[in-house]
Amino acid sequence: MSNHDRPMLTRGGFLVVSAMTLGAASAAGVAASWDATSARAADAPGRTRPGGGGQNGAGFVEAVLAAFRNHRLVAVGEGGAHGLQEHHDALAMLLADPRLPEVVNDVVVEFGNARYQATMDRFTAGEPVGNTDLRPVWRDTTQSPLGTWEEPVFEHVYRTVRAVNGTLAPDKRMRVLLGDPPIDWSKIEKRKDLEAFLVQRDAHAASVVEREVLRKGRRALICYGVGHVIRTSKQPALPPGLVSVIENQTGERVYTVASLVPLSGDPEGLARRLTGYPRRTVIPTSGTWLGDFNAGLLFPAVIRGSGSQPTNAMCGVALESVLDAGLYVGQPDSLTLSRENPAVYLDPGYWEELRRRNTLQGGIIDLDSYRQERSVRFTPQEVPPSLLC
């Protein structure tokens, strides 16, 4: 499978799937942000569905806690781009809420290599773990070097759980489950060696959820990019994402929420319609104007076949069929990105390894840009007019 044939979620945040490899799981990339909520809240002004009444929204933390009353699994999808600060601000509030450990046993994350699960267990239990032992958790995932997860918000998730656990009795502590396959980069010498791990990303994470959460009678908060959270099982042209795999294999329904980050140009006025809601409002999709919104204008899934024009497989799909709720994190021009400190790439050993990984994948990125300060301003995803449904 060539680099152009494999399905992937791009840094820009939309799914690109080759018609030649529809059975494979999504590969490297950036995804979207997402949150779930459900609690009492006043109708947002002017947010009515044609022929219907006002639509209720709820605060993020309250909505997630409410979702756990009826679901053992709640997935929060990061939209727009990995490292979206506003998404992680909401997530940090949730993780620090003292009520969360009463309904959550595990936090399943995309940005951690399962090979280091024992290290993470020691860390979140409050044991001393040096930085040289901790960093490989996020540095050595299958996404490197396209995604190094060096942005502070990802490490902050681990440190927040550790801090919260320090206030809890041992039997109440939350466990962080690392969802990315246990790749050992020292044994990856060819592109095909990496592909063997890339194609099992969602399947591996689903097996972790089934084995460590469901079989043990536990409940989990799943923190992944939106491409893994939206339901694709009803779109036969797309490979099943994490949530679809979990539901198909276990029969356990996952409550899904994703950050709402409109595309460049605000097609169909999504950003405009969200202005009446307070930030961190979760809006359900079932029976609402949001549920009627065209998912292809929020989560484009581009099918790129051999010799054919790319098409957006999500065009015409109602948002309520792929997502249970949307999290409003702010207007696109106000959003920001968490950025890594360029100094982390000055470590000569780490830098040489990143260069090796990049070369192995055909030089997919300009590594030199990693050593430069980058703007924190978020830029909405640009999508060609031909793919805008």
From TrEMBL:
Q: Where is the signal peptide?
A: 1-27
Query: Which PROSITE patterns does the record associate with it?
Result: TAT (PS51318)
Q: Which keywords does the record carry?
A: Signal
- Give the InterPro entries listed for this entry: TAT_signal
Q: What is this protein called?
A: Haem-binding uptake Tiki superfamily ChaN domain-containing protein
Tell me the organism: Pseudofrankia inefficax (strain DSM 45817 / CECT 9037 / DDB 130130 / EuI1c)
